[in-house]
């Protein structure tokens, strides 16, 4: 659940223009700041905007876009309701991004003229679609914003993206190296060989497995699904161990050398837990497939979280302001 939530959430953050810039190094944070980190602060108006964006995303992803109290009071996991889980996520994510704005300045980064022009064009297109600046400002008012403030939002989003690329992108100064990739693979993945056989063949295949026959030969002979792209097995991420997919759940219940079956309509998945190879032994195709399935993103996310967790403890939250905007009550932002 946690990883799924993380994958679908929007990347949005900024401070409002009518106060000081979020990266301002001279002015003190205004009294209505929702969060403060050193010389970076997030105002009440922006906090309202931020949580409204997440509200739309959560409702669309987990409640078919419908907003009702029953959903927000439903358990998202054993410990928290959707309201509690979403609010906690927003708070943590916003703390991270507030720190990111400070780091953006500390590293001496600056948005390019091209990026600023792209943002300006985006804003102008939205003004044109709204019919006028007045009409757009009226619509933005329900989020506590105006056009200038929205421009600041988009610029801050761009700063966050630029920082992450600077740290972890293709030429990132903290891009994971081969040693980190190898350790992360060993610590966070399991390998499972799988074959999908006709139901009437399943008992015979399992008997052959127990008799010690070659697994790869059995897969080649009996599987009606081609698993040739997985010569070392299917690599499963431990973060997905609570998946609703029965084959994935079953795989994580096995010890190395054990096998089990998962019944389907007219077929059976037979899974055999095998030794996880060293990352250095994987082919280029296997590495590319891993990255397509989120390996690199998961590793970068872990590195980023570790870096930011050491900093966000110093973010000060003004609960007198944040408590005024329960996610159940704020407007949904599906456009801006």
Order of helices and strands: HEEHHHHHHHEHHEHEEHHEH
Tally the structural domains.
2
What is the level 1 CATH name of the largest domain?
Mainly Alpha
Flag low-confidence runs. 4-26
Number of helices: 14
Detailed description of the structure:
- Residues 4-26 have low confidence and may be disordered.
- A hairpin with a 3-residue loop joins strand 5 and strand 6.
- This protein has two domains: 2-175 and 297-322, Triger factor/SurA peptide-binding fold, CATH 1.10.4030; 180-281, Chitinase A, domain 3.
- Helix 2 (44-62) crosses helix 4 (82-106), helix 4 (82-106) crosses helix 7 (147-168) and helix 5 packs antiparallel against helix 7.
- The two termini are 26 Å apart.
- It has a four-stranded antiparallel β-sheet. A three-stranded antiparallel β-sheet has the order 2-1-7.
- 50% of the residues lie in helices and 11% in strands.
- The protein has helices at residues 2-8, 44-62, 69-72, 82-106, 113-130, 133-140, 147-168, 178-188, 202-210, 215-222, 246-251, 284-292, 295-312, 319-322; strands spanning 33-37, 40-43, 189-198, 234-237, 259-263, 267-274, 316-317.
- The longest helix is centred in the first third of the chain and has 25 residues, at 82-106.
Question: In a nutshell, what does this entry contain?
Answer:
The chain is α+β, with helices and mostly antiparallel strands and 336 residues long.
Name some characteristics of this structure.
336 residues, alpha+beta, Triger factor/SurA peptide-binding fold, Chitinase A, domain 3, 2 domains, four-stranded antiparallel sheet, three-stranded antiparallel sheet, 14 helices, 11% strand, elongated
């Amino acid at each position: 659940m946690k990883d799924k939530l993380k994958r679908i959430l929007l990347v949005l953050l900024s401070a409002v223009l009518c106060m000081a810039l979020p990266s301002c190094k001279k002015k003190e944070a205004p009294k209505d700041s929702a969060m403060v980190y050193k010389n970076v602060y997030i105002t009440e108006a922006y906090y309202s905007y931020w949580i409204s964006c997440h509200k739309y995303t959560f409702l669309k992803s987990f409640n078919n876009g419908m907003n009702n109290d029953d959903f927000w009071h439903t358990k998202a996991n054993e410990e928290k309701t959707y309201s509690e889980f979403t609010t906690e996520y927003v708070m943590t994510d916003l703390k991270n991004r507030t720190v990111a704005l400070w780091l953006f300045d500390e590293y001496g980064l600056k948005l390019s003229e091209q990026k600023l022009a792209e943002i300006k064009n985006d804003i102008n297109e939205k003004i044109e679609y709204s019919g006028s600046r007045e009409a757009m400002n009226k619509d933005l008012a329900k989020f506590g914003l105006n056009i200038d403030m929205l421009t600041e939002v988009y610029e801050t989003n761009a700063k966050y993206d630029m920082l992450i690329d600077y740290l972890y992108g293709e030429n990132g100064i903290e891009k994971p190296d081969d040693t980190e990739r190898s350790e992360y693979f060993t610590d966070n993945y399991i390998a499972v060989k799988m074959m999908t056989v006709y139901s009437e063949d399943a008992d015979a295949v399992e008997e052959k497995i127990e008799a010690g026959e070659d697994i790869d030969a059995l897969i080649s002979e009996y599987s009606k699904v081609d698993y040739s792209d997985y010569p070392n097995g299917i690599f499963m991420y431990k973060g997905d161990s609570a998946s609703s997919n029965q084959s994935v759940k079953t795989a994580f219940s096995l010890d190395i050398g054990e096998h089990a079956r998962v019944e389907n309509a007219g077929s059976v998945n037979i899974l055999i837990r095998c030794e996880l190879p060293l990352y250095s032994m994987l082919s280029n195709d296997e590495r590319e497939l891993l990255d397509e399935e989120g390996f690199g993103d998961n590793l970068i996310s872990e590195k980023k979280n570790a870096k930011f967790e050491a900093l966000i403890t110093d973010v000060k939250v003004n609960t007198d302001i944040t408590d005024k905007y329960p996610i159940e009550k704020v407007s949904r932002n599906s456009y801006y």
